[in-house]
Amino acid sequence: MNKTKMQETFYRIFGEGGDLIAAFAPGRVNLIGEHTDYNGGEVFPCALTIGTTAIARVRSDGMLHFYSDNFPDVGVMTSSLDDLIYTEEANWTNYPKGMIWAMKQNGYRLDQGLDFFLSGNIPAGAGLSSSASVEVVTGVILREVLKRTRGLGEDLTNQDLALMGKQVENDYCGLNSGIMDQFVIAMGKEDCAIRLNTADLSYAYAPLHMEGVQIVIGNTNKPHKLGDSAYNTRREECEKALRILQEKTQISHLCELTPEAFEAVQDALTEDVLLRRARHAVTENDRVARAVTALEAGEVETFGKLMNEAHASIRDDFEASCLELDTLVDLSQNCIGCLGSRMTGGGWGGCNVSLVRTDAVEAFCKTVGDGYRQAIGYDATFYIVEAGEGARLLSLD
Ligand code: GLA
Fold first, then answer.
1. Residue nearest to atom 8 of ligand 1 (CA)
2. Would you say 294 and 306 are in contact if contact means Cβ atoms under 8 Å apart?
3. Is 178 in the pocket of ligand 1 (CB under 6 A)?
4. How far apart are CA 354 and CA 9, in angstroms?
5. How far is CA 222 from CA 6, 125, 326, 377, in A?
6. Which residues form the catalytic set?
7. Could you give the C-alpha distances from 367 to 276, 307, 325, 380, in angstroms and in order?
8. Can you list the alpha helix ranges (DSSP code H) found in 271-377?
9. Nearest atom, ligand 1, residue 179 CA
10. Parallel, antiparallel, or unpaired for β 42-59 and 192-197?
11. Over the stretch 331-353, which tens digit does the pLDDT of each residue have?
12. What is the mean pLDDT of the chain?
């Protein structure tokens, strides 16, 4: 929905008048470095050009009125600043409510209610971080509201908003996710991926100069909801493996180990599951470094091969894939013009990401799409994407 249409809808739902504040936050795709962000490792995601747009207006009664044209059937949902508790029924509004809660926890208490309208074009449940996008776009709106109403929030950086978004996932929604999604959504840069060290949040932008190669996302259309998945269990397994290895070597995160250092201590992991989980974290972290080096040297083929290796590792060692993802990845990897392919995001459904030669993209989507339909019984969806800019305020003029 374009901005004018959104504004019209806003007025139709909430009534005319008042000052509107608008903001946008993208979705993200992770190119390599999966399940390393809670193991002190590196990730290499980029922001997308699709995302979530929000428009808000201050209310004087302390009430929160939410409406999203992605969920028109639920209509306007209401809550208040005195009632910021997570509830199942609050549905998608838990994310903006959670951000208001996180702001308060961090000393940025909102004292005015809001009319809040959201419109997004990130496919829901696809693992492209629609929820982190809602958190961060809400953060941008709230920072502006606080500046205007309380003279607060001038010091809040986009990185701070990302950290609050993570706090919402962890402490409000109960998903022990890492910082990757919110960070790249808040900090993304056009035509660049971000190499982020999740142990200390140091980062560098890497231009995605891939002459003649496109990033293609394939959606399995198998919805995934990480809250219901084994995500938290994987995190616990990694933490358990870390505690065992800490008896052998001085580390604070699994990803501090190089593959060689890991080999030297891996015998301590007598439980096969823990050995495999830790091995994935360590080797995946090493793959990020090699992939970024390859990209910088213009060796896109090497980057693609590392993506293939990353998929095998997440499938066999980390067990965060599923039949639909493996099918889509296999078909992609075997298609002419594809340099590499892997699942992306949390796993157990959602999307894969592939690097495909530009002149082969059309045939790629057709061949892989046909094969997927035949094997799984329903369609996959493909998106040819560009790396976009991170979260920002929008002008409505
Ligand atoms: C989800 C989480 C991220 C990260 C990925 C896996 O997207 O939100 O923090 O752990 O899964 O890499």
1. 177
2. yes
3. yes
4. 37
5. 29, 8, 12, 11
6. 181
7. 33, 20, 16, 11
8. 272-296, 300-316, 323-333, 361-376
9. 9
10. antiparallel
11. 999 999 999 999 999 999 999 99
12. 96
